[in-house]
User: What shape does this take?
Amino acid sequence: MAPYLFAGAVATVALIWAGMKIADEIHSRSESRAVQREIVVCNSKVKDQEQEKKGKTEPKEKANDKRHTSDQEALSDLAKEAKKKGVTKDAADILLEWSKEYDFPSRDDRGTTHWQDPPVDHIHLGGKHIPIIN
Assistant: This one.
């Protein structure tokens, strides 16, 4: 009976060791991918800076860039929260002003009937419906 217990314990240890090796490999690969992504981003930034120096492109602030500025990111975060809770009319006006100021996609859909039944007054910020509460 003892040899079977010993064999079972050895098998269990072997499985645990194999699992740890797999986990290490996954972690190593994910770190490698993260480093590769960082290298690609850095190379892209360097190429963009070289192009700007040569006068071939506009500076990133003026170019049609897909990345958000820090102000746009903050507005996007506000929109995510507002989508869950809704905003007052005054807050909706402020969010729409900020969206114009920071060149963030927005639309005022108060008084429309295309969203929810019965219709709910709302605005759009970055593609998110934000209900207006009283």
